[in-house]
Design brief:
Length: 113
C-alpha cells in the first residue's frame, strides 16, 4: 500500500512523489506537498441568467427565442423545461422539450422556474 495521497482533482490512487510536489499520471494534476486535501479545485456551479444555482432535476424557463440548429422550429420564450440534467461543456443543460425532442441548452438563456 502506498502512503501517498490520492489526487485531489480525479481521486486517482496512482500518484507519485516528484521531489517538492506530487503528480497524478492519469490527469496530469500537480500539487505541492504542503497543500492538503482542502485545497482541491472547487467545482463551479452552473448558474442561470439571473445567477441562481441550477441542480439536476430543476425546472427552467427559456428567456429568449432559440432557433433549433438543423430545423425550422424555434423554442419560444416562456417554454418550461422540466427535469434538466447538468453536463460538462459549452451547452451545460441536457433536456427534453415537448414538441421538439432532446436538446442541449446554455444556462445563459434560461431562468429557474
Amino acid at each position: 500500500m502506498s502512503a501517498l495521497p490520492n489526487c485531489p482533482a480525479c481521486a486517482s490512487e496512482f500518484t507519485y512523489d516528484d521531489g517538492i510536489q506530487f503528480v497524478c499520471p492519469e490527469c496530469g494534476h500537480e500539487w505541492s506537498k504542503e497543500e492538503g486535501p482542502a485545497s482541491a479545485p472547487e467545482e463551479t456551479a452552473v448558474r442561470d441568467a439571473n445567477g441562481n444555482v441550477l441542480n439536476d432535476g430543476d425546472t427552467v424557463t427559456v428567456i429568449k427565442d432559440l432557433k433549433v440548429k438543423g430545423s425550422s422550429s424555434v423554442v419560444k420564450v416562456g417554454t418550461k423545461v422540466k427535469n434538466i440534467r447538468l453536463v460538462e461543456g459549452d451547452h451545460d443543460i441536457d433536456c427534453k422539450i415537448d414538441g421538439i425532442g432532446p436538446m442541449k441548452l446554455k444556462s445563459d438563456f434560461v431562468k429557474k422556474a
